[in-house]
Write a structure and sequence with these properties.
By secondary structure, the protein is of the alpha/beta class. The chain folds into 2 domains: 42 residues, no CATH class; 130 residues, Rossmann fold, CATH 3.40.50.12280. It is built from 6 helices and 7 strands. Helix 2 packs antiparallel against helix 6 and helix 3 crosses helix 6. The radius of gyration is 20 Å and the shape is elongated. The two termini are 25 Å apart.
């Protein structure tokens, strides 16, 4: 598998450009070589959409406890989540990702589901911290949901009590990797 670069040369498959080209299709290879000389990049539409989707994720916070402080720290200049294409939004209708950070109580569970349902497709959820992952310290309380995955489908779990900002950055990178791996327009 090769990747056609805008400069007209062929690079090895991998990270460069992110658009794979099938070597076994002679028409596709010939067209790619002709257009590469003119400065064009030939790629499948699915690959371009997936690349754009991973580089422009808009996240919305659902901060419920102390994990939200670490989430705010990850957006500050030291870690700067926006350099990975992960920018905050205040409205669920403009968000692709919801970060559930903290203890989810039975009273907040319907609100979480309602906000999740307002997000457009495709939508992703990151569960941040022990309380959001499985109830955490308050696991045996009658008022706590034992994991937000009982209310909404979770894509990435970030462990810790509270998890560090580095752990959240790693979780975001894992989510981007998961989106690239799925690589379909429909989720």
């Amino acid at each position: 598998m090769t990747i056609i670069t805008p400069a007209g040369g062929a690079a090895r498959a991998g990270v460069e450009g992110g658009f794979p080209v099938k070597e076994d299709d002679p028409f596709y290879t010939g067209l790619s070589n002709q257009l590469a000389d003119k400065g064009f990049l030939v790629a499948a539409a699915d690959d371009i959409i997936t690349w754009a989707r991973t580089g422009s994720l808009m996240w919305m916070t659902f901060g419920l406890a102390c994990c939200a402080v670490e989430m705010m720290q990850a957006s500050m200049p030291r870690y700067d989540l926006e350099r990975f294409g992960f920018a905050p939004r205040a409205s669920p209708r403009q968000s692709d990702v919801m970060i559930v950070a903290g203890t989810l109580t039975n009273k907040m569970a319907p609100a979480l589901r309602k906000v999740y349902d307002q997000m457009p497709e495709p939508r992703y959820v990151i569960s941040m911290g022990s309380c959001a992952n499985g109830g955490g310290y308050y696991h045996y309380s009658y008022a706590v949901v034992r994991g937000c995955d009982r209310i909404v489908p979770v894509d990435i779990y970030v462990p810790g009590c509270p998890p560090t900002a580095e752990a959240l950055v790693y979780g975001v990178l894992q989510l981007q990797r998961k989106i690239r791996r799925e690589g379909t327009i429909e989720r």
